[in-house]
């Protein structure tokens, strides 16, 4: 048994003020975070999000361009998301502040200050609102959160590509806010031992069905995977897929966990995106794709199950917070907690490699883990 992983942070790190390598503290930066499905970002829309404690406006121009900028007008601090998208001659499409009408291009550059008169030669384009790199990929919108947004270079990698995004758009999406730091949310999702105690549905599994399991793991880009295998015999929900399903479960920094199931030529992808809003709130978004015929029939029941799981996990987070507010030392055991320990090692190495200006070296080694659940 070992205490919760922690390590000192380099004084050169931009996060040195908040010991980001300690479990439950700080965030993984210089990384892509999921913010929305593409279909939920409508033309001319302006929506406020909170990412890693920062207010971020996500919008789309009428021409179809998605953009992200800090949701604070630099004039008098009104949220830009409370304004509107306008188009003026010679300016193109701009975001107009609701307070004094200052207008900003999607790249954050100020295009106009309406209160100025002709003999007041103020250079509006010298004013900028912080903009964030944004990408649309596989029907999702991702925002790059840099370690130093004032001098941030272009992203040095693209958002992850997930296997099994098939059958058109997402078939089902559910989300819930957890009152937890993203670290606790991540390890809660990858914890293999809590299922029989927290998720006690007749169609899933129960404490009485527990038995020993052995699963092979291997490192993957920015994370690790439980290599493809047949589902456990006490996981009853897989039986509705028929055939001989084979599943692979992967995790990748900063907070993506997905299960890719293959049944012959058909596929199911269950993707969980963890989006930290603040130090104490994380949004869990679960997205499903499938070209399997049974998905259309079972979707209403699957939705009920997903909602039940999220509520049960959220309830456990609230109970856990009762103990965490006393800042106790946490105990991690092998092998049931090995994935949680890997996550902490990955986070530490990511932050350290960025601070030292060197390539990331995955600390995870191939292993077979054994536990009961």
UniProtKB/TrEMBL annotation:
SUPFAM superfamilies: Bet v1-like, ISP domain
Coiled-coil spans in chain: none
Gene3D superfamilies in alphabetical order: Naphthalene 1,2-dioxygenase Alpha Subunit, Chain A, domain 1, Rieske [2Fe-2S] iron-sulphur domain
Any one Pfam family match given in the protein's UniProt record, by short name: Rieske
Source organism, top-level taxon: Bacteria
UniProt entry keywords in alphabetical sequence: 2Fe-2S, Iron, Iron-sulfur, Metal-binding, Oxidoreductase
Domain Rieske: 32-143
Protein name: (2Fe-2S) ferredoxin
Organism taxonomic ancestry: Bacteria, Pseudomonadati, Pseudomonadota, Alphaproteobacteria, Caulobacterales
């Amino acid at each position: 048994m070992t205490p919760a992983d922690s390590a000192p942070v380099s004084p050169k790190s931009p996060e040195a003020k908040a010991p980001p390598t300690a479990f439950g503290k700080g965030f993984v930066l210089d990384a892509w975070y999921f913010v929305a499905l593409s279909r939920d970002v409508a033309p001319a829309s302006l929506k406020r999000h909170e990412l890693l404690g920062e207010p971020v406006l996500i919008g789309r121009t009428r021409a179809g361009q998605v953009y992200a900028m800090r949701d604070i007008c630099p004039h008098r601090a009104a949220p830009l998301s409370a304004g509107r998208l306008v188009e003026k001659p010679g300016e193109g499409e701009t975001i107009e502040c609701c307070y004094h009408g200052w207008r900003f291009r999607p790249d954050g550059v100020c295009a106009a200050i309406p209160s100025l008169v002709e003999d007041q030669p103020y250079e509006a384009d010298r004013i900028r609102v912080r903009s964030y790199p944004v990408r649309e990929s596989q029907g999702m919108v991702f925002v790059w959160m840099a370690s130093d947004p004032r001098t941030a270079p272009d992203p040095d990698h693209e958002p992850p590509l997930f296997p099994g995004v098939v059958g058109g758009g997402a078939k089902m999406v559910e989300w819930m806010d957890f009152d937890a730091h993203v670290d606790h949310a991540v390890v809660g999702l990858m914890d293999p031992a809590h299922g029989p105690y927290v998720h006690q549905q007749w169609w899933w599994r129960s404490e009485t069905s527990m038995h020993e399991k052995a699963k092979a793991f291997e490192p993957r880009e920015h994370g690790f995977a439980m290599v493809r295998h047949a589902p456990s015999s006490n996981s009853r929900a897989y039986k509705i897929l028929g055939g001989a399903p084979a599943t692979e479960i992967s995790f990748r920094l900063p907070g993506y966990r997905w299960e890719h199931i293959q049944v012959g030529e058909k596929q199911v992808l269950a993707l969980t995106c963890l989006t930290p809003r603040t130090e104490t709130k994380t949004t869990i978004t679960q997205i499903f794709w499938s070209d399997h015929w049974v998905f259309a029939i079972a979707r209403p029941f699957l939705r009920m199950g997903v909602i039940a799981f999220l509520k049960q996990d959220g309830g456990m987070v609230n109970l856990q917070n009762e103990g965490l507010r006393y800042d106790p030392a946490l105990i991690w055991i092998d092998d049931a907690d090995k994935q949680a320990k890997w996550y902490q090692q990955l986070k530490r190495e990511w932050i350290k490699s960025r601070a030292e200006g060197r390539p990331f070296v995955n600390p995870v080694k191939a292993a077979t883990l054994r536990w009961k659940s």
